Fold this sequence. Notes:
Shape: globular
Low-confidence stretches: none
CATH class of the largest domain: Alpha Beta
CATH architecture of the largest domain: 3-Layer(bba) Sandwich
Largest sheet: 3 strands, parallel
Amino acid sequence: RTSQLRDIWLLGRRGPLQAAFSPAELREFLELAEADVIVEKNELELDAESQKILENNVNNDTKKNIEILKKISEKEVSGKKRRVHIIFLTSPVEISGNQKVEKISMVRNQLVKMEDGSLVPQASAEINEAAAGLVFRSIGYYGKPLSDLPFDQKTGTIPNECGQVKDSEEGNILREREYVAGWIKRGPSGVIGTNKQDAVETVHRMLGTFLKGKMEAGKNCTNLDIVSLLENRKVEYVSFSDWKLLDAHETEAGQKKGRPRVKITSKADMLSVIRQKKQLKIQ
Length: 283
């Protein structure tokens, strides 16, 4: 709230139809208390190929994104102290200044259709310059492959069906007892709530597979006591009762500041709080 930032420009190298954000993420821009969000109507003008895709071959999330962007473009600026400008088909090409960021040069892109039918951004001859004092790069998340697991190099995800890992090179055979959730499952999109739904889907598939196969809990396991196993390996684990100590600490800290909680984000700090709380219980 004390920041001196007044204008924030979000640049996307591709068009609005190719934007990777989810409707849930985009809707949050409509709820910013201290900033107007601005999308010029010309930014939503689609090229012929993108228009064809929108009309014939696009998923519901993309349609919702376009609808929300149109809603933003029609919304009047209310005079809030900050403005967020969303710009498509634009890439930064040079950042300049004397010992600090002072100016940024940007190129206007155009979408070019490739042999496989995909549309990729290609720089045009149009260059624009603008004053700038701070630049952040956000190039997205790309998953890393794990040994003995299939991996989709194009999407950076582990191929799966509702969270159950599948071998796409082996006729999409589903692997038993191998599951994924989160960004490595679906790619970098969504908000915290999306991850919860994502995890629920995976757990449902796990339970369904468990029941369908009539698997017995602990069958073929050489060590039934996970706590003993972790202790033998000198792993500092967190039990549910330990987590409840951390949860109580965060909630109590939040109440003192009129907030639901004060979240501890460092793993080392989390473990330190749990150790202290457990020690107090012993005393």
